Amino acid sequence: MPLPTGPQTPSLLQTLALVTQPIGFLERCAQRYGDTFTTRVLGWQSPPVVFFGDPTAIAQIFTAPAGRFELGKVTHVFRPLTGDQSLIMLDGDRHQRQRQLLMPSLHGDRMRTYGQLICDITRQVIGDWTLHQPFSIRASMSEISLQVILRVVFGMTPGVRYQQLKQLLHTLLESVTSSLYSSQFFFPFLQQNLGAWSPWGAFLQQQQHIDALVYAEIQERRSHVDPAQEDVLTLLLSARDEDGQGMTDQELRDQLMTLLLLGHETTASSLSWAFYWVHEQRSVLKQLREELEPLGQEPDPDRLAQLPYLTAVCKESLRIYPIALISQPRKVKEPVQIGDNTFDPGTILIPCIYLAHRRAQTYPNPEQFRPERFLHQKFSPAEFLPFGGGARSCIGAAFSLYEMKLVLATVLTCYDLTASHQGTVTPERHGITFVPSKQFRLSAIARHSRVSRVNAGV
């Protein structure tokens, strides 16, 4: 059976278009070919890559028998960053084992033990803001997100190793957001180690320095286990599979780097958009403040996380500009029927989050920011899928939404913010995510005297 229609330009041109202008590429294809279209976007000799925006088809992909697809082999671009044992690189039983070991530390009661620390980190970072001066909210959200990962996930406390790792990770994460730098992960022929002066050689050297610090932390924590600690690394050190086996040092390192690389800039970008939309539509800010006001100056994190309008604001922000444009690609292993099409082995199937979230049949007036959508309707996992879906959904989804709500609420409790941008704010590429363009700036005014004293250095 023939594949769905799609662009006929050479595969290299399609690949470059997707890498450099992914939103524009996807929107043009959807406008011309509809909900489902075939591309060639994986380099010189790309296999067919089929994108899906229809929730019915997406649901079929998410619920198809696991044996029909290979998943880890499609994420090769992340391998140099996350390592071979990363959850996103594995298939079958190995993937299921790692997922079961990781899951408890990022959900339920365990996740809620991190709430106060997230709020404290947020107050500490925003306490450095200069009042009445325009600033980039993304930079602050990136700093909060990185500190949350180092403190909550790695379980590190400020000190020499903490500062060294923080600086190295900041440099790496900022580099990865550059289109020129990140292109070497998409094109293997660019991965030439010609010494520290070459792009790939510099990356490998940087990675070695990061690994040395991460492995040192793992070794120290193995030799001095503190049962009172409740960070993710401590929980993973004690986690055991059904055979009584724990994670090796490499498995721990790879999972920590995966949580860092896929959870840092994504959360920071989503928060940046939340602040943009809240201050773009004053009625949304007014309703959000009315919900927050009764909780006082330092609200309980659990009460914040349960607020319905705060939750709706965060979900609508994730809908309109999701954390990632696509869910994890699936490589067909055995013939599979999705909708009216049967796909042969070797074909890559991609549930497209961005297109599903912009589908007018599901979300009337999809370009408009309307949090009430999530107050009046419950969307299926194939209609609202900011963290992917099926067996390969993001393992940190619950934690990311939880962090997002706490950070947004904490900032709005401490400050009145005023947007100060000229012209239209557009999505700007920042690594694997999109952020409000540089015109978007905010100015802060303290809402109570305690914050004013912090800003004044008292």
Automatic annotation (TrEMBL):
Would the keyword DNA-binding be found if you checked this record's keyword annotation? no
The cofactors it requires, by name, are:
heme
Molecular function terms, GO-annotated = heme binding; iron ion binding; monooxygenase activity; oxidoreductase activity, acting on paired donors, with incorporation or reduction of molecular oxygen
What is the species listed in this Swiss-Prot or TrEMBL entry?
Answer: Stenomitos frigidus ULC18
Keywords for this protein: Heme, Iron, Metal-binding, Monooxygenase, Oxidoreductase
Record-given protein name? Cytochrome P450
Q: Which SUPFAM superfamilies match?
A: Cytochrome P450
Binding annotation for heme = 394
In the record, the note on similarity to other proteins reads: Belongs to the cytochrome P450 family.
